[in-house]
Amino acid sequence: MKKTFILSAIAVLALSACNGLDQIPQNKYTDATYWANSDNLYNYVYRAYGQTFDATKHLFDINIVSDDAYGSQQTYSFRDISIGTAFDDSGEFGNIWSAAYQSLRSIHTILEHLPDASLTDAQKARVEAELRYLRAYNYYRMTVWYGDVQLFKENPSLEESRTGSRTAASEVRAYIHSELEDIQGKLPKNTDLPAGELGRATAGAAIALNARMYLYEGNYAKCASECEKLINGTSYGSYSLAPDYAQLFVDGYKGPEAIMTIGFSGTVSNVTRGWSINRYVPNSIGDGHANYSPTQELVNVYRKLDGSAAAAEDYADRDKRFYSTIVFNGAKVTFPAGKSISVKPDEGTTNVYTVYTKAADEAKVGDNNRVDSYAGPTNEDRTKTGYYQAKNYVASTVANNGNSYQTLMECRYAEILLAYAESKAKTGGMTVDVWNKTVKPIRERAGFDAAYCQMPSASGDALVDIIRDELRAECGLEGRRPIDLRRISLEKNPSLATSGGVYISHNPTGFNGDDGKPVTQTAAYATKFWFAVPKQQRLINPNLGFNPGWTE
User: What are the angstrom distances between the C-alpha of 350 and each of 339, 343, 347, 369?
Assistant: First the structure.
């Protein structure tokens, strides 16, 4: 049953009586006239995009629910999830669930009123396909975190929302695949988008999301088939690697590597839709609170340029991606352009300073305004591992409140190449030719020596692990690792799906502190496979039940 949804803040249905007849008001929108206005409809479409893609939760803080980052008190809900102390009423379980269904309500409301819009048939068909992509994306994320979820294909009645049971994850995923396969030919190619529309869904985005879902499910043949649509032709768009990895994260990259971006608008002084980098960068130029810190385990993934493993705290001649991802002891960082900073710059510069995350090194500078160094496991403001995040920090885009407006990568072509390489390795189809058009160019871009860029002699699971490590380095701190780690853990232990047991269980480490000993965290990872069905949702609808591993 459909429910008419009226935006009380901007659309008012007001009926007046005159001579016994209802009259349409001339100075206010009715529910019908609101949706007939194309500007109103597109504003609501863009709102649905914004609801679907929350940069803080889904690209940044979600990294805490993996072995790539360790959270602080500032992100206690995510940290509690990662260390196994969360309850079913913990904030993020409910926040992520509610946000998805709020986005779905917006999507279904627009779809309901789309026939009334003053658009051409072609424009309506495109908007419908975009909204179906956003709906599939929301369900993709929901079924990864929660498994079985309520599957609505239109806005439910109040009764349906409060009494309906959850749909099996397998059925939800089948629906996702059917939707994404159907809309691939109904969305424009990336090469057909004008500059002002970059960030809207394309055929390539639908294919990439379908490949992600197949990869998560372990359906490697299907994943490879989807990837080939983007690798072996231009029927669905034209994609290629950017020549410089660093540029992907410093100027709102919108080139041929971008498959799906999260767009932001406004200026540094007037951000109309932005995101905050304030709590990820070094403390001296942030806001005094570190949301999370990259782990030594992630740092170790970035090898020396000859392909050898780097020694602890050997930060020279590393994989180029390391310098775009990690702020380490001795790294140089540019001051935010829009903020007043008291830190003294390095000699000979006006806006660059060397970050010292070791207390002894920082003390030698003699600048009391520097507060980046590790200060023990109980300090919740500074790094807890000896590292900060570098990726997506661009000094010239930071406003005085710490917000940025630059475009962020949600999905890019490098992921497709590595998903294809992994799928081929898993199905026995990895050849030198496949390697040379997937992993090799990615390693070459990372600056590795020619010998390390060649296909290794490894085979089977050993080769798969090599490719998965490549994916971890390529997409470090981009929100991918939590999902990749889950699918890899499930592959090795299928019982996790029914037991809901712990799939990350170890104590994350950091660099060697001033005492020469490895920094360890105050609590070890003990992350359950499923997110809990939020308690507040179960109180509204008892038929939602519990996820495996969660009880009263």
Answer: 14, 11, 8, 16
Work out whether the CA dihedral 317, 323, 325, 326 comes out positive or negative: positive
**H or E element in which residue 416 lies:** helix 413-426
pLDDT band, residue 378 (cuts 50/70/90): confident
| Strand partners of residue 149 | 167
Query: How far is the C-alpha of 467 from the C-alpha of 275, rounded, in Å?
Result: 31
With 0-12 CB in 10 A as exposed, 13-18 as middle and 19+ as buried, what is 455? middle
Specify the length of the chain in residues.
552
Q: What percent of the chain has pLDDT over 90?
A: 79
Q: Shortest CA distance to 86 belongs to which of 536, 548, 508, 531?
A: 531
Amino acid identity of residue 436, one-letter, is: N
Q: What are the backbone dihedrals phi and psi of residue 417, each rounded to the nearest 5 degrees, phi first?
A: -60, -45
In this structure, are residues 102 and 51 in contact, taking their beta carbons and an 8 Å threshold?
yes
Please state, in angstroms and rounded to a whole number, the distance separating the CA atoms of residues 132 and 179: 7
Q: 422-434: per-residue pLDDT in tens?
A: 999 999 999 999 9
Residue 16: φ, ψ to 5°: -120, 155
Type of residue at 457: S
Q: What is the C-alpha separation between 257 and 266, in angstroms, rounded? A: 24
Hunting for tokens 């009764």 — which residue is that?
A: 159
Helices (H), 218-303: 220-231, 296-301
SS (HEC) of 120-169: CHHHHHHHHHHHHHHHHHHHHHHHHHHCCECCCCCCCCHHHHHHCCCECH
- Secondary structure class of 353 (helix, strand, coil): strand
Residue tagged 């079913």 (tokens): 88
Cα–Cα distance, 180 to 186 (Å, whole number):
10
C-alpha separations of 371 from 128, 356, 368, 459 in Å: 50, 9, 8, 47
Spell out the alpha helix ranges (H) of 260-351: 296-301, 320-325
